[in-house]
Design brief:
This protein is mainly α. It has 2 domains: about 80 residues, Orthogonal Bundle (Arc Repressor Mutant, subunit A), CATH 1.10.10.10; about 90 residues. A two-stranded antiparallel sheet has the order 1-2. The N and C termini lie far apart (about 80 Å). The mean pLDDT is about 80.
C-alpha cells in the first residue's frame, strides 16, 4: 500500500522530498516508517515512470530533491482509489499464533512463558497506541493537510483490536491452566523403539511357539 500512499500525497499536496513524505505518512496515517523504506519506494516509483524528479524551490535545501507525480502516476492512483478493495480484513498468522498451536505439546512452563510474553507485547503495543491517540487528538496538533483527519479513528480501531486480543489471550491462559490441572501438562515422550531381532533370537522364538494341532 505504501506506493499508493506516496502517490496520493503527491497527487493532492504537490511535490515533496522524501523526508517531508515520511513526516506526512507518520502524521496522517500513523505508520512509523524508516526513511530508507520511503526512498526505496520512491526509487521503484521513478523506475515505473509514476514519479519524476523536479526542481527545488528557491532557497530550499539542495540535498533534498523533491518528486512530483506524473500523468501515469495520477492515473494509477485514481484507478486504485476507485477500485473495490480486495480484502477488508487480513488473517493474523504471526509468530505467537503459530506457537499457540503447540501449547498442548509443550511443557507447561514453556506454554505459560509464551502466553505471558504475548500478553506483554500486546500491552506495550496498546500503550504506544494510546500515546499516539493522545497526540492525534491534542487541541494544539494543528492541521495535517487532510480535509478529514481519520488517524484518531484508526487509532481507536487498533486499540479495540488490542483489547480483543488481550481478552482472547486470557481465555487461552485459562484453557491452558485447566489442561495442566487435568494432569496432561507433560510433554509427550516418544515410545522406545524395539531393537531388531537377531537371527539367533528369531530361531529361539520360533522354537518356543506352541505347535497348532
Amino acid at each position: 500500500m505504501m506506493r499508493y500512499v506516496i502517490l496520493g500525497l503527491l497527487r493532492h499536496n504537490g511535490p515533496r522530498h522524501g523526508y517531508a513524505l515520511l513526516k506526512e505518512v507518520r502524521a496522517r496515517i500513523g505508520l512509523n516508517l524508516s526513511i530508507g523504506n520511503v526512498y526505496r519506494e520512491l526509487a521503484h516509483l521513478l523506475t515505473d515512470g509514476l514519479l519524476a524528479s523536479t526542481a527545488n524551490p528557491v532557497g530550499a535545501d539542495p540535498r533534498r530533491a523533491p518528486y512530483e507525480i506524473t500523468p501515469a502516476g495520477i492515473a494509477t492512483f485514481d484507478s486504485w482509489l476507485s477500485a473495490a478493495p480486495t480484502k477488508a480484513l487480513v488473517h493474523h498468522h504471526d509468530e505467537f499464533c503459530a506457537r499457540a498451536f503447540f501449547l498442548g505439546q509443550a511443557d507447561p512452563s514453556v506454554g505459560r512463558k509464551i502466553i505471558e510474553r504475548w500478553k506483554d507485547e500486546l500491552a506495550i503495543h496498546g500503550k504506544t497506541l494510546e500515546r499516539a491517540k493522545e497526540a492525534a487528538t491534542a487541541p494544539n496538533r494543528g492541521c495535517n493537510g487532510s480535509p478529514i483527519d481519520v488517524l484518531p479513528f484508526f487509532l481507536s480501531r487498533w486499540l479495540r483490536h488490542v483489547a480483543v486480543d488481550l481478552e482472547f489471550i486470557e481465555q487461552l491462559r485459562v484453557a491452558h491452566e485447566r489442561w495442566v490441572e487435568t494432569g496432561h501438562g507433560s510433554p509427550e515422550q516418544p515410545r522406545p523403539r524395539r531393537p531388531p531381532l537377531r537371527a539367533k533370537d528369531d530361531q529361539h522364538l520360533r522354537r518356543a511357539r506352541p505347535v497348532a494341532h
